[in-house]
Inverse folding.
């Protein structure tokens, strides 16, 4: 008996419509053994799953997430992702295309992003990549991810992601954030907290109240997002052995060395005021007491104000640069073209 993967294609016009109405669906059946021949491992090998790149017969490039085994844990993670993605459509959430169930494993099919995850780009310090995450780009990513998470929290019942981290934020070619990986997600009534039976998530990103008494609320996601903001600001990995990112940041703050907290790759940025304000937002998100943390809607509002100001400032600087170039009498056409190329947003060439 042949096993098939069923893909749910959203036409281009539906991709910009993120209402709750069901978009038109087109179906494409692919024999599982042929799918295996089309996939190429992306090098994203996690504890319970692997991610592959696949080129389908119609030339569509997709990412295929393979959940190992067909036990209780794998099936529960598979169902959590299907339930979450079926109820959620937002420009800052990854687009779900289809799934496949076999006797050996479960497969989930998503849109593919050449840039990969935020984690991979932040970790790359060799200069081999063509993506440059300056401060405006990092703020844009933070703003987008916050919007996606706020959307999940606005649903009824609320959706708690439980594993917000930089490796679960994918980036489009325009550096737009897409929150992904909903295998640990839980649906929680807005008026209640939820007691889980076991700890789930990435330890460095887990809120203290969840670690201590397994009490799960949307404020646990807010805490995790605060860690993501600290990573964007510092460029440091909170999961590194014998390294406490929060203590490291607070120690430098206490010594009046706040600017030394920032990633050397963005430390010379002219947007230091914006960076300092985002640092304050991050520290609010990681408050020990959940009731002292902001909601994700409040985080989005604060980041929106900063993002709009930073984007406006960057556009103004760009216009000034072009104006000065145009007014110089010795400029030639090829020099103007070079300026335009320098201003274009850089795109990554490989995953």
């Amino acid at each position: 008996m042949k096993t098939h993967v069923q893909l749910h294609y959203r036409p281009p016009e539906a991709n910009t419509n993120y209402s709750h109405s069901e978009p038109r669906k087109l179906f494409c059946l692919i024999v599982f053994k042929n799918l295996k021949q089309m996939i190429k491992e992306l090098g994203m090998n996690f504890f319970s799953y692997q991610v592959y790149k696949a080129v389908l017969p119609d030339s569509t490039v997709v990412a295929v997430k393979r959940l190992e085994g067909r036990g209780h844990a794998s099936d529960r993670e598979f169902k959590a992702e299907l339930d979450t993605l079926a109820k959620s459509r937002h420009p800052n959430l990854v687009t779900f295309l289809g799934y496949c169930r076999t006797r050996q494993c479960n497969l989930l099919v998503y849109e593919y992003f050449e840039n990969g995850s935020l984690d991979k780009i932040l970790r790359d310090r060799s200069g081999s990549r063509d993506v440059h995450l300056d401060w405006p780009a990092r703020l844009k990513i933070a703003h987008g991810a916050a919007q996606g998470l706020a959307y999940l929290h606005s649903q009824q019942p609320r959706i708690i992601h439980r594993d917000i981290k930089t490796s679960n934020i994918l980036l489009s070619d325009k550096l737009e954030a897409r929150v992904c990986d909903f295998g640990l997600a839980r649906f929680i009534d807005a008026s209640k907290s939820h007691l889980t039976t076991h700890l789930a998530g990435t330890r460095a990103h887990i809120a203290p109240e969840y670690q201590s008494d397994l009490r799960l609320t949307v404020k646990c996601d807010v805490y995790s997002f605060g860690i993501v903001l600290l990573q964007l600001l510092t460029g440091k990995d909170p999961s590194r052995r014998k390294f406490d990112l929060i203590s490291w940041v607070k120690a430098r703050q206490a010594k009046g060395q706040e600017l030394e907290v920032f990633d050397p790759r963005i430390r010379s940025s002219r947007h230091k005021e914006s960076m300092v304000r985002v640092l304050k937002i991050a520290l609010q998100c990681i408050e020990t007491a959940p009731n002292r943390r902001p909601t994700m809607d409040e985080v989005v509002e604060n980041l929106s104000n900063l993002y709009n100001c930073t984007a406006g400032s960057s556009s103004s600087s760009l216009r000034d640069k072009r104006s000065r170039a145009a007014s110089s009498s010795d400029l030639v056409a090829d020099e103007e073209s070079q300026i335009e190329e320098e201003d274009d947003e850089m795109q990554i060439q490989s995953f």
Q: What stands out?
A: The chain has two domains: 4-111, 118-308. The first helix runs from residue 12 to 15. Residues 118-308 form a domain with the Transferase(Phosphotransferase); domain 1 fold (CATH 1.10.510.10). The two ends are 35 Å apart (CA to CA).
